[in-house]
Amino acid sequence: MPQDGPVEVVILGAGVIGLTVAYTLLTTSPNAYKIKIVARDMPDDLSSQAFASPWAGANWSPMRGSNDRTRVWERATINKMWELTPQGLAMELPSRVFFTTNEDLSQLWYKDLVKDFRVLDPSEVPAGLQGGIAFKTFSINPELYLPWLQSELLARGVEFVRRKVHSLGEAAALAGPNSVLVNATGIGARSLIGVEDADVHPIRGQTIIVHAPGLKEFVSLPLGAGNPGEATYIIPRPSPPGEVLLGGTFQPDNWDTSVDVATAKGILERCAALAPQLKDAETRILRHNVGLRPARKGGPRVEAAWTDVPLKSELLPLPESDGRVNGRVLLVHAYGFGAAGYQNSWGAAQEVADLIASSLKN
Ligand code: FAD
């Protein structure tokens, strides 16, 4: 639907996906969009457990279950992160990842995408595991990265509005007729009236942040190597110096955001077995965290369609809907990224930007 002047865009959600979509729209098509980000949790709400983004590792290391589409996203993201490394936002990270399968690791799809990829010799693989690889990837610190993204957006004129939205109709009313509405609500897509995506579910992740300058590499055991729900991994971060995230848990459908003390002790023991430097005298525990990964059965939902969104529902009459019954918007969904929202972010945001550009032409 072509129109004069910048197209109004409302992005519902200020996690890494909503922010990266906004950044990509503004940098790939300068002056084409006027963007408002509406969200309950803002990028500097770094203690809020109501959204996932503050709690990520966050590094780039593809998981089981990736497909051609997510690989495109991951490829774009790692390339972008190499660009951000010189400014200190991302850090090049030596990595060792172990596997429980006998597959030919020399043919992994990302072997040429990461740096210094090699298959580990069996003598380098812990007992009970089938193989491993070493490579260089990146990590970031969400506590610095999210505020950086927000400051970049503010500098480009993006308006941030703190508001909990109850329904898609309420969001469409905020967006105005014939504008773009991006639904980047993460786990909120499960309960947003009008979306109500029952495939969206949490995967609970408990972690520990430590100061451990002796830990210099990402190390990860495969899911299934330990007890159900355990995920053992170590992610050094670019800054503050010496900060490292220890994981963790991977507990589907567990909504509990409280720290479990026995689980924390288990994480420390498992990580120390993997990296004995954790027992160095200078190690200090800084924080215990729990976050909910916003997963979706069937994978992330990224799609766009012109939609007549009912502005009122029996659950939420909207006095502010100025008499209109429907709000016609280009409705774009971008949620359900589970354990990979950061490493998908730049590629997924580019797909969203392409979908918006092509839909606006039609
Ligand atoms: P969120 O960050 O959840 O943001 C959702 C936004 O929508 C928030 O602003 C929220 O307030 C808003 N919202 C929701 N509902 C409403 C509503 N009704 N009204 C208004 N606003 C609403 N990913 C990686 O790539 N690498 C990693 O190493 C990694 N490690 C992780 C470790 C842990 C322990 C956890 C918990 C996650 C990890 N992740 C990792 C996953 C990553 O954090 C998520 O995939 C990503 O943060 C999802 O971002 P999002 O923007 O989709 O959702």
UniProtKB/TrEMBL annotation:
Q: Where would you find the membrane-spanning parts of this chain? A: 6-26
Q: Identify the residues that the record assigns to the FAD dependent oxidoreductase domain, covering every copy.
A: 9-355
User: What InterPro entries does its record include?
Assistant: D-amino_acid_oxidase_CS, DAO, FAD-dep_OxRdtase
Is the keyword Cell membrane in the record? no
Keywords, ordered alphabetically:
FAD, Flavoprotein, Membrane, Oxidoreductase, Transmembrane, Transmembrane helix
For the keyword Oxidoreductase, the answer is yes
Per its UniProt record, the required cofactor names are: FAD
Gene3D superfamilies assigned: D-Amino Acid Oxidase, subunit A, domain 2, NAD(P)-binding Rossmann-like Domain
**Superkingdom to which the source organism belongs:** Eukaryota
Annotated family: Belongs to the DAMOX/DASOX family.
Protein name (record): Nucleotide-binding domain-containing protein
Q: Which organism is this protein's natural source? A: Rhodofomes roseus
Upper taxonomic lineage: Eukaryota, Fungi, Dikarya, Basidiomycota, Agaricomycotina
